[in-house]
Each structure stands twice: as structure tokens, then as C-alpha cells.
Write a structure and sequence with these properties.
The complex is a heterodimer. In chain A, about 75% of the residues lie in helices and about 5% in strands. Chain A is mainly α. Chain A has one domain. Chain B has two domains: about 260 residues, ABC transporter involved in vitamin B12 uptake, BtuC, CATH 1.10.3470; about 45 residues.
């Protein structure tokens, strides 16, 4: 039972992180490799602010979300839009966005590593304190409860927004065929910026919640999460909201299971192995839509 | 000169291994296979080299040859598994392969030395060996960019369907790309362990992919010259940037980001473009002069139309 609880809380962190990546990849074709850096750096900014003043929990979250959204929008404007403008084909653009993201990710990482000397940093100075509640023989922290609720609510909200709202429809149209969507009067640039801002904000939120859960993170922890998020997205199927939730909790379940069975150092291999297996057996993912290819 | 060489020996060695690592990523990219498996092969090569020397007391050259072949085989098997994937999916599958290598290295027990890795790898490896292997690899890669083979590789990258319809076995070319990248990466890793004498799981993994990729992106992805430029820059730059002190990582990141966004074909691509436009301008000037000097056509009969067209044809060539 305790294991189920850890699966759900770990999976919720994964869900928050992967949600943003899945959203940008499934709609505006941006596989943002600096998502991990955004995740780390927005937490890092909150950490720096906490060095001077003790902020309450909500303020810390607000700072991280704002920084994440801002970084994400800046990267979109300064890098990805320029790449898309210059690239000859869509395939080239996708590749260059991947490479550009890897390049950009170095910058926040370098700043944070320089400042912390690659040591872990936490958010202990916040006036929020992590409590553990004991129900029967179950132990759960208040931050875990909050993470689970926030992740599920945001996931549901985003899924409904994509499905029901006009903008969501427009965004999904871009995902299917960007050219035709803009012929139908969809403002691609504005929607892309909104999407990136939402994704960045989610990364910042995930960063703060993750750091409160663990106590501290290292500047490099974004990289590992990035590959895990990729595993989650392809497991569920690119662009599928149900898929990303399924992937997040499935990966968490696999990892917790491996953790209870082995000494623990194989946990990292779970997500990488999963990528391989999924790509071999079902490249479109569990909930993926079938790709129509002309060639 | 010789004292400069001796004080910077470590950097010279790093340049050669870095060059081979960069080539191991570049060769598949040139065939349109976006694979990072070369970086995984490098990690594999580091460990295989250490194991062969430490546990089997092998000499340097056989170690490198065997490691290269083994790495080529491993990456070829990976290639066979994921050959049908494309684009981003292929790229990420190979990233997963690289990371699996480092997890295996951590969990390999006695064989890989766990999280401390293997150390004390000393053998009869000399700089002569290193230069020779580096030169051979470079020449072979350079040859694959010329003539018939070079054109076929370009066709496989730019338009696989067209290439297939012209009778090129695209699948075989892509598998060869995997094997070659494995061999290059494995050899680079083996040479690295022989000159560094120690390897730990921290030395391989995601940062290695980033390093190899940055060399190719900043140098240029479509010619071995780009790999040379990239390897030179990213081995020597940290040393030169020591002037800027602690912020070198940041500057490194900014350079990579700018190159990735603004110069998709790298510094070598910029060089080629500049050269071409300068030549074009010169030819333009030459033609302008030539047309100014040509007397108005008088039908004397000894100049044919083709003669009058000659300067223009020259310009177009």
C-alpha cells in the first residue's frame, strides 16, 4: 500500500514535468530539450530569492512558475522561431530545435553549477514546512498530497482546454497540419507562445514541488528527468493527454517495482529500456494516433 | 615547438579522441541517420579497452582493434533493432542506448568497477600509434565524401526514396552508418582510456553526447573538415577561455546556442558560403569588364554566336 502511494506521488511529479513537453511536442512540434534546464533554473531562482527573504509557499511557487514561463517564451522567441524561419524543411527544423535545445540547456546549467559548485540546493528557507501525516500504517507528506492533487487537476484542466475550447481546437489543428491551420485563420505565433509559456510554467511548478518532496536537487537533475519525460511521452503516444498520464504513472510504477526488487542502481535503466521496448513494439505509443505517411 | 607540444600533450591527445568521437556522430548524420550511438560506443570503448588491458594483459594495438570491432558490432545490432525508426525517434532511441551503457557500467560489478570505474590502465601505447590511427580514420572518412561514394551518401541523406529508386540499397547504407559510427566511437574510447588510464561512469553518458554534438554543430555537420574544426575549438577553447576564468562554461554554452540557431551548417558551412559568394562576385566583375570591352557585334562572320556567349558561360559555371 505504501508502494502504491509512492507510485502515485512520484508519477504525479513525472506527469507535471512531462505534461509541458508533451503539449509542445504534440501541437507545435517543439521537442524542447531545454525543458529540464527550465525546470532546474526556475527552482534555482526561487532558491536564490529565498536566500534574502523567507517567502511563503505560494510565493515560491509563483516565482518558479513565472520564471519558467518567461524562460520558455524567451527560448521560443530567440531560438526556436529563428530556427523555424530559417529551416528548409520541417524535418530539418525538428532536428535543429532538438540540437538548439541541447545547446541552450547548457547556459542555465552553467550558471547554476557555477553558483552552487554543483552541490545540491533546496528550498529550506521557505516558511513552508513539510509535515508527515500518519493514517493507519500509511505515511504521507503534505507536499505529496498537494503534488498529486495539483498534477491531476492541471492535467484534467489542460486536457479539457485542448478538447473543448476554441484555442484548444486551434492548437490541435496546428498539430495536425500547421499550414492548413494558419489558412483557417489560426494565429500560429501567438498560440505557440502561449503553449510554450504554459509548458515552462508547468516545468517551474514541477521543479518546486519536486524539490520540496526530495529536500534538494542538483543542477544536473533536469537531464535525467528529460529522458524520463521522453520515455513517458512515447509510451503514451505523442500528443495524447491520456497517454502522458498513463505513461507517467506506468513509469513510476515500474521504477518503484524495480526499486523494491533490486538494490536500486538499476532504476535509471527502466526508462531507457522502456524507450527501446516501446519504439520497437508500438512506435506510436499506447494511445498514439496513427501516423499517416505518404512516402 | 617541441616544448609547446610537450606542455600541451594532453590537449593534443584530447583533440584526436575528440575528433574521432565527433566523426562517429557525424558519419551517420551525413547519411541522414540522426544517431548518437557513437557516444555510447565511446563509453563502451573506454570500458572494453580497460578490461582488455587490465584483465587480459593485451597490448595497445590489438586492444584498440578488438574494441573498435566489438563496438561496431554492438552498434550494428542496435542499428538492426531500430533501423525502421526515423528522425527524432531514432535520435532518442540512441540517446537511450548511450544512457543504458552508463547504467550497465555502474552495475557491472568487478568487470566495470561499479561507480569508481577502472583505473591504472597502462600499456605500450605511444603518440605515434595515436597519430597514425587518427590519420587513418580521417583519411577513410574523407574518402567517403568524394566521388561516387560521396554522391551516393548525399543521395541517401537528402532523398532516400529517390536514392532507392536509383538502385541504392538505402537500408544497407544506413546500417553501415551505424557500424562505422560504432567502430569510430569504440576506437576513440579505447584510445581515451589508454592515454587517460582511468574511466568512471561519470565520464560517459549525457554530457558526452552534448560534447560530440556541439563539436559537429559548431564545426559543421557535412564535412570531415567541420569535425576537425569542432574538435579543435572545443578541446582548446576551455584552455583559452581560462582568461575569462570561472564563466567559461557559460560562454561555451552561449557559443553552442548561437551556432545551433544561426549557423545550422557550422563554421565550415559559413566558410563555404563566403568563398562561394566571393568567387561569384569576382566572376561577376570579370564578366562586366568583358562585356564592356566586347565591341558591338558586327557581322563580319569570323565570330560565331558561341564565341560571344563564352564569357557568360564562364560566369555561369
Amino acid at each position: 500500500m505504501q508502494d502504491v502511494l509512492s507510485v502515485v506521488s512520484l508519477g504525479s511529479i513525472y506527469l507535471l514535468f512531462a505534461l509541458g513537453m508533451s503539449l509542445t511536442w504534440g501541437t507545435i512540434d517543439v521537442l524542447n530539450f531545454s525543458h529540464g534546464s527550465i525546470f532546474m533554473f526556475s527552482t534555482f531562482t526561487a532558491y536564490l530569492l529565498l536566500g534574502s527573504t523567507a517567502l511563503p509557499f505560494l510565493a515560491v511557487v509563483a516565482v518558479a512558475v513565472a520564471v519558467g514561463a518567461l524562460m520558455s517564451v524567451l527560448i521560443q522567441v530567440l531560438a526556436f522561431e529563428q530556427i523555424i524561419k530559417r529551416a528548409r524543411t520541417k524535418k530539418n527544423a525538428e532536428m535543429q530545435i532538438l540540437i538548439g535545445g541541447i545547446g541552450i540547456a547548457i547556459i542555465p546549467l552553467a550558471i547554476a553549477q557555477h553558483h552552487t559548485k554543483s552541490n545540491p540546493f533546496g528550498l529550506r528557507e521557505s516558511s513552508f514546512s513539510v509535515d508527515t501525516w500518519v493514517v493507519g500504517d500509511l505515511r504521507i507528506t503534505n507536499i505529496a498530497v498537494m503534488t498529486i492533487i495539483v498534477a491531476l487537476v492541471l492535467w484534467l484542466a489542460l486536457a479539457l482546454w485542448l478538447r473543448r475550447s476554441r484555442n484548444g481546437l486551434a492548437l490541435r489543428a496546428i498539430g495536425v497540419d500547421a499550414e492548413v491551420a494558419s489558412l483557417m485563420g489560426v494565429d500560429r505565433r501567438r498560440l505557440a507562445l502561449v503553449t510554450m509559456a504554459v509548458a515552462g510554467g508547468l516545468a517551474g511548478l514541477a521543479g518546486v514541488l519536486f524539490t520540496f518532496t526530495l529536500g534538494a536537487i542538483t543542477p544536473e537533475s533536469g537531464d535525467t528527468l528529460l529522458v524520463k519525460a521522453f520515455a513517458i511521452i512515447i509510451l503514451g503516444g505523442v500528443g495524447s493527454m491520456r497517454g502522458v498520464a498513463f505513461g507517467a504513472y506506468f513509469l513510476a510504477a515500474c521504477e518503484v517495482w524495480v526499486l523494491t526488487q533490486t538494490s536500486g542502481s538499476w532504476v535509471e535503466a527502466v526508462s531507457f529500456g522502456l524507450i527501446f521496448i516501446v519504439l520497437l513494439i508500438r512506435p506510436a505509443g499506447v494511445f498514439g494516433r496513427k501516423e499517416v505517411r505518404r512516402t | 615547438m617541441s616544448s609547446f607540444y610537450l606542455t600541451n600533450l594532453v590537449l593534443v591527445q584530447a583533440t584526436i579522441t575528440g575528433l574521432l568521437l565527433a566523426l562517429s556522430i557525424q558519419v551517420p548524420i551525413r547519411m541522414g541517420v540522426f544517431s548518437f550511438a557513437g557516444a555510447g560506443a565511446y563509453g563502451f570503448g573506454c570500458y572494453a579497452g580497460a578490461i582488455l588491458v587490465l584483465d587480459y594483459q593485451m597490448a595497445a594495438v590489438p586492444t584498440i582493434v578488438i574494441t573498435g570491432l566489438l563496438a561496431g558490432l554492438v552498434v550494428l545490432v542496435v542499428g538492426l533493432l531500430i533501423a525502421k525508426l526515423n528522425g527524432l525517434y531514432l535520435a532518442m532511441a540512441t540517446v537511450a542506448f548511450c544512457l543504458i551503457i552508463s547504467v550497465v557500467a555502474i552495475n557491472g560489478g568487478e568487470l566495470t568497477g561499479g561507480s569508481t570505474g577502472r583505473y591504472g590502465v597502462i600499456s605500450d601505447f605511444t603518440m605515434g600509434h595515436m597519430f597514425a590511427i587518427g590519420a587513418i580514420a580521417l583519411v577513410l572518412v574523407a574518402l567517403s565524401e568524394r566521388g561516387k561514394l560521396g554522391r551516393r551518401v548525399d543521395a541517401v541523406r537528402e532523398d532516400p526514396e529517390l536514392a532507392a529508386s536509383m538502385g541504392i540499397n538505402v537500408r544497407r547504407y544506413r546500417l553501415v552508418a551505424f557500424a562505422v559510427s560504432g567502430v569510430l566511437g569504440g576506437v576513440a574510447g579505447a584510445m581515451n582510456i589508454l592515454v587517460r588510464s582511468a574511466v568512471s561512469p561519470l565520464d560517459i553518458g549525457f554530457p558526452l553526447i552534448v560534447l560530440a554534438l556541439t563539436m559537429i554543430i559548431v564545426g559543421g555537420s557535412l564535412s570531415w573538415k567541420g569535425a576537425v574544426i569542432g574538435a579543435l575549438i572545443f578541446t582548446w577553447l576551455p584552455d583559452l577561455l581560462a582568461v575569462v576564468g570561472e564563466w567559461q562554461e557559460l560562454i561555451y554554452g552561449i557559443i553552442v546556442a548561437i551556432a545551433a540557431v544561426l549557423l545550422p551548417r557550422g563554421l565550415y558551412g559559413v566558410y563555404v558560403d563566403t568563398k562561394r559568394s566571393v568567387l561569384r562576385r569576382r566572376r561577376q566583375e570579370a564578366t562586366d569588364k568583358a562585356t564592356a570591352q566586347t565591341p558591338p557585334p558586327t557581322s563580319t562572320g569570323d565570330t560565331t554566336d558561341i564565341d560571344r556567349l563564352a564569357p557568360e558561360m564562364e560566369a555561369q559555371r
